[in-house]
Amino acid sequence: MDLKKQLMLEVAQRILAEKILCDHCLGRQFALLGYGLSNKKRGEIIKNALVLQLIDKLAENETNLRVLTNIALSGNRLARESLERKNQPVPERKENCTICKDLFTKLDFYTKKVLDKLEGEEYTTFLVGAKITPELMEREDNLRAKYQITTGESIKSEFTRELGKRIMSVTGKEPNFDQPEITILVDLQQEKITLQRRSLFIYGRYNKYIRTIPQTKWPCYECNGKGCKSCNFTGKRYQESVEELIAAPVLKITKGTCTRFHGAGREDIDALMLGSGRPFILEIREPKVRTIDLKKIERVINRKARKKVAVSRLAFSSKKQVQTLKQQAEQSQKTYRAKIELEKPKTPNEIRQVVETLKNAVIEQATPSRVLHRRANLNRRKKVFDITIKQLDPIHLLAEITGQGGLYIKELISGDGGRTKPSFSSILECEARCTELDVIKIHYKDFK
Description:
Layout: H1 3-16, H2 23-28, H3 39-54, H4 62-73, H5 77-85, H6 107-118, E1 125-131, H7 134-147, H8 155-171, E2 174-175, E3 182-187, E4 192-197, E5 200-208, H9 242-254, E6 258-263, E7 272-285, H10 294-304, E8 309-316, H11 319-331, E9 333-342, H12 348-358, E10 362-366, E11 379-393, E12 396-404, H13 409-414, E13 420-421, H14 424-428, E14 432-443
Helix pairs in contact: 1-3, 1-4, 3-4, 4-5, 6-8, 9-10
């Protein structure tokens, strides 16, 4: 017998002289000493080895008899039969495991509870988690401290693995330790099962054709979303949003609980989003249905939100792509069309000066005063890549501006009281005001 096995048997013998352990809990104390065996099988082998080693040494000391009696009381047939052949009485009853209190005999019970909970759920991968009682953890910790065991696996790992094997066997679904579609949480104290469904992510582009709705849900200022007379008890300042018009049909089909809208930037409420649309990712939380026809959903959204919002290029996405979307939104270029009104008439030469000054210019821009109540007062540097201006008459202009993501176009025009430099107003030395703004292109590559 090699030294490792000999030491394992010596420790096991010391434990079993004082404790009654089930096969799982005994085998788990030595899980790191070898592979290819379940803890239950390892525990059974250790017990059988001790029975064969000690059965003919009962007369040497009382400890050997205690070890074999405790093994027999744990339900080991070889120990019971061997002791009976030696005319050593063994109580008929089986004792509970000192550590787990026979938790592992309830695996079938928990498997049934989980399967009942999973009824009607759509998923291809899963992961099992467990909330172990503090008392159970303490019993195992005390055992390992007393016998200086450093080769054990946690009871939580073994329980979730063994339960996962049973679920996989019945359902045919595969466990996934990185991104499971559904996580099964077992509360052992309450004997309660809860499910956590991984969010479903859908990428696409949207167009906005009206100037009266925000991109995302906007809580009422008066009640902060609780509902009051000011908002007609809806909790919303605006009764519709791009997010809600897109999300409603998706929520209905996926049976999710709520959504979160991730846009590659956002346009002002009174601005249109034209061209090929703005990239977005819709996150559906706790979806019960995951297999969905995105082409059909696209048609449903476009029909129900007709003349308000349209979506295109819908594709399944991921949480990782949300981060990429946000990062690239700051760097990607955006092209705007702005109608501008000047306080004073200006000549074509003066208008050309605006183009020459702003093209390829880096703009120093503080957080606009109109959004200071909800955004931090920061200074930012954003670039204007290109600009063309058509003078409609001495005080009316039509400009196309391509700028870096995060550039505030209305303030580039007005100057915002000197908070944006340079600006149309500062160059023309008169007040300039944006009367209408449209986003006509987001220079952004779709995810493959």
